[in-house]
Amino acid sequence: MRALTTSSPARFAVLVFAALILLFTALLSLPAAAASGERTPLADALFTAVSTICVTGLSTVDMGTYWSPFGQVIIYIGVNVGALGVLTLASILGLIISKRLGLRAKLIAAGDTNPMRAHGGPVNEGQTVRLGEVGLLLRTVALSTLIIEAGLAILMYPSILIAGVDPLVALWEAPYYAAMSFTNTGFTPNAGGLEPFATDYFFLTVMMTGVFLGSIGFPVILALWRSQWHIRRWSLHVKLTLITTTLLFFLGAAAFLTLEYDNPLTFGSMNAWDTVFQSFFLSAMTRSGGFSVVDVGDLNGSSLVVGSMLMFVGGGSASTAGGIKVTTLAVLALAVWSEAKGRQSVQAFGRRIPSDVQRVALSVVAWGATIVALSTIVITHLTRAHVEDVLFDVISGFATVGLSTGLTAQLPDPAIYVMAGTMFMGRVGTVTLAAAVAATSRSQLYSLPVERPIVG
To answer: CA nearest 290: which of 311, 276, 275?
Structure first.
């Protein structure tokens, strides 16, 4: 085990994540976890465990009625454990075992949480930068999770009472909704989902706030806590994350408003204020939140395409959100813009982005697109379903969003396993997964002759 953690921290973290999934699969398979008192089928237990640990939100059963209180508690614990992140989680386990955060654990944590990271897997001294601050970052992860979820629960509790929920039951549903918001999971503890809160704008706004805080990433939360509104002190990572997140939020809302305002099954039956608000809510949730007031299956095909694009991008790095990450999109967009302007280097806010970061960004998109394409092909073949529905649910699974056209609940067992694998690869992260599978990196002490192929 020691040799494994030393040679490949990323691979060790993947094994930790896989072990957690197996543990929660066993727990959810217990008869006591189901409301019926019967043992849950392996496919459903495994899928729910993956969706829980990967904070996805997709399910093959009704989450509000299928699980017993014991099962719901298991799921609640699972999403908070999964929200810590693959490598951060491995670091905390190492801290518990060794009673101190050693260099190896710091390298593991820095590999996932440091915005200056250039490669997946083991990171060198130049990439870890402020290695001594990793312990502080881990404390920030734990404290911010606790404080934010507690604050969200307190704000949500009155709305849950107004919806007619028993006060004692509301004491459970408030922290449950808070956890599902901050972790960007999207599970609901009641059978009707968000139906009781469809017109409660305060509750939905609090939920959007929780999703936003969970999706920007712990390094950004730490930077904002330290620098607050001193924008000049913000790192390039913080600036790119916040700007891209805000831009996609408004562009997504505008797209859904334009495409759905006359759809009688979604926004067409609402007044102007409801339509605008629900457009912003849907835009926020397609980024990784996973909650929905309208039935996703009733959206126009054009809206499903927009939703798929937003889901594929996801949230910020080292966050509870999935996808290829907003900084990846920002780096590629800046690279395209620099190429169009004829610049020799990619620049933003007075900083130059090195070429190795650009290559990693391109690799993340390529790996992500490949995983989504292969999963879509396989599941379409197994189910014979419409490819647009399959593609939407596959991207939702890969980006750990949790929205569904209704297809996931009808998947046969072989397709369930494929979707579970897609969620696992999406949550672990394409770069981390590639580093875990690849052999130890080799240094090349020579350079080959240059030859330029024709591109485009």
So the answer is: 311
DSSP code, position 67: B
Q: Which two tokens stand for residue 311?
A: 């889901």
Which residues are CB-neighbours of 366 under 8 A, at least 6 positions away?
Answer: none
Instruction: Report DSSP state, residue 34.
Output: B
**CA 361 to chain CA centroid, nearest Å:** 17
* Torsion angles phi and psi, residue 353, rounded to 5: -95, 120
Q: Where are the alpha helices (DSSP H) in 68-133?
A: 69-83, 86-98, 103-113, 125-128
Determine contact, residues 279/251, Cβ cutoff 8 Å.
no
Work out the average pLDDT over 320-329.
89
Query: Tokens 């970061």 map to which residue?
Result: 357
Structure tokens at 220: 């950004």
Residues in the chain: 456
Q: In whole angstroms, what separates CA 303 from the centre of its chain?
A: 21
253-269 pLDDT, tens digit each: 999 999 999 999 999 88
Contact 95, 105 (CB under 8 A): yes
Taking the chain, what is the end-to-end CA distance rounded to the nearest angstrom?
Answer: 47
Hey, where are the domains in the chain? 326-436
- Who contacts 31 (Cβ-Cβ below 8 Å, separation ≥6)? 37, 38, 39
Q: Which of 123-132, 155-164, 167-176, 225-234 has the lowest mean pLDDT?
A: 123-132
| Amino acid sitting at position 35 | A
Picking from 331, 343, 185, 181, the residue whose alpha carbon sits closest to that of residue 244 is 331
CA atoms of 14 and 56, how far apart (whole Å): 17
User: pTM score, two decimals?
Assistant: 0.86
The whole-number pLDDT of residue 121 equals 43
* Alpha-carbon distances of 39 from 26, 28, 44, rounded to whole Å: 10, 8, 10
pLDDT digits (tens, 9 = 90+) for 135-154: 666 676 778 888 999 999 99
Query: What tokens appear for 234 in the block?
Result: 């913000």
C-alpha 146/C-alpha 330 separation (Å) is 30
Number of Cβ within a 10 Å radius of residue 373: 12
